[in-house]
Amino acid sequence: MKANCRRFLEPGMLAAADLLAELREGTVEGVSEAFLTDPALSAPIGGPLAVPTSGFASRWLFGAWLYRELDKALDDDSHLRDPGLWTWIAFRLFDVLRPSGTKVYENARYILANDDYRKRYRHLVAGPYLVYSLYQDEPQVVRALLATQLHKPGDLYEQFASRQELITSAAVIGAVNRMYFDEEGGALKRGAAANARRLAEVLMQYDVTYDFAALSTDRLLDMLPREFRRFLPK
Amino acid sequence: MTTRRLNYTGCQRIRRADIEVSVDSTTTPPRLACVVDFDGYEFPASAVLVLEAQAHWTLMRFNLGTVATPSADWFSLSDFATAEGVGFRVKVIGGGDKAGLILGEADGIRPAEVDQLGDARSFLPVQPAELGHVTWRLSFAGPDPLLQVNQKIADWRSFLRRPEVKSLILPEVYRQLLLEALMNPADAESDEAWQTAMLSTVPAGAGPRPLSEDHEGCDAWVAEATATFALKHKMFRGVAAWIGGAE
């Protein structure tokens, strides 16, 4: 199934917040087609955007899929800066983002909080897309960050996506992937999320002293203290 | 939880007042230039100067040369639609056995739009004109002074916004304007008169204002005020960066 890509206008963004409240209260069942295509709430900005009929095994697979889809659907990359686009996609894919039986989470997961750096990265659509596109030349490197289910970003993602200094550093993200992603199992190593919280703290301390852009992943891994030995590549 | 970050390695804090980031938003995408005054700091001459521009997860890094030979180039903020909301951070990075170490840093830098051409800007319109081989001149033919720029310079707005050009032109523009304001004062000292605005830029410490008949006194007073203006805006930094030498 495909529907033309749209962006929510200001009334649409407000209506989206109201709809989330109603979904939480259970007064409405889901997101209607009429809500998504009402010209008073949204405007078309691109070609067809596929709506997957089944879920994705990980946020990484979702990010890869969306990266390809938006590349086809949008002829102008400036739309990627539009919170209305991300919010509309979240509601378009609401059933994919909210598997049956799961709750409706905070608004920032569905409505892009573009001006709030503490919440912006939490968006369930923009988050995986932006992380994937940030490392589009070597997307395998963000497998660990995006290893969880679509509706569960997880603590590892939270620790690194919430810190500009870390998420934008190729050396850091490379180290995170080498330490915490089990290539054979295709999933996070056991205990990764808890260890990542401490790693983020240590790296923020390193950021005072080292220019991450001048460091390689190998060099950064060499610098880590013994407490991370369990996760360091052999 | 906020993690306290400790500076164990003696990274020098560069004062924001010693950094001038100029953003030109008249171009698409916007562009920027950066000049750092290293006077009073102890950085190796070979240390690398880097400017980072960041908004959300978009990060651009610009290599600004070394401490000894900084670059005066303009750089395109090609990854940003607008300079609004972009944060700037300057780093001095070590080389050799200190490779990758941050030797000096300043963050939270507020850029200046290049339209803000100093104290003289608000009452000085600029216009391209046929000037032959003269690059620029001040005209006092009309009720207000006019800065004329040779029309052969196609992108004259950008030309005037270059740090090195500002360094060369603005002190002399300031001197001529001030001298004219002093020698040919407005009929009455009204707030609207450009002369009043111009004379108000001179700090009180410059001493008593000479009478317009006292030509020598006017010259000396204006020269002193111009030197103060140039010092306040660190006008030589643009030239120093351009020629690659110390101030």
Catalogue the unreliable spans of chain A: none
Classify the helix fraction of chain A into a percent range.
Answer: 40-55%
Given the C-alpha coordinates, what overall shape of chain A results? elongated
Please give the domain count of chain A. Answer: 2
Main structural class of chain B = alpha/beta
Strand content of chain A: 5-15%
> Could you list the spans of chain B in which at least 5 consecutive residues all have pLDDT below 50?
115-122
Distance between the termini of chain B: 45 Å
Proportion of residues in β-strands of chain B: 25-35%
Overall structural domain count of chain B: 2
Main beta-sheet annotation of chain B: 5 strands, mixed
Strand order of the biggest β-sheet of chain B: 1-8-7-4-5
Q: Structural class of the secondary elements of chain A?
A: mainly alpha
Helix run count of chain B = 5
Q: Could you give the order of strands across the largest sheet of chain A?
A: 1-2
- Quaternary state reads heterodimer
Mean pLDDT of chain B: 82
Spell out the helices and strands of chain A N to C: EHHEHHHHHHHEEHH
Radius of gyration of chain A: 19 Å
Overall spatial form of chain B: globular
Q: What can you tell me about this protein's structure?
A:
The complex is a heterodimer of chains A (234) and B (247). Chain A is built from 11 helices and 4 strands, in the order E-H-H-E-H-H-H-H-H-H-H-E-E-H-H. By secondary structure, chain A is mainly α. Chain A has 2 domains: 137 residues, no CATH class; 82 residues, no CATH class. Chain A has a two-stranded antiparallel sheet. A two-stranded antiparallel sheet of chain A has the order 3-4. Chain B has 2 domains: 102 residues, Immunoglobulin-like, CATH 2.60.40; 123 residues, no CATH class. In chain B, helix 2 runs antiparallel to helix 4 and helix 2 packs antiparallel against helix 5. At the A-B interface, helix 6 and helix 10 of A face loops of B.
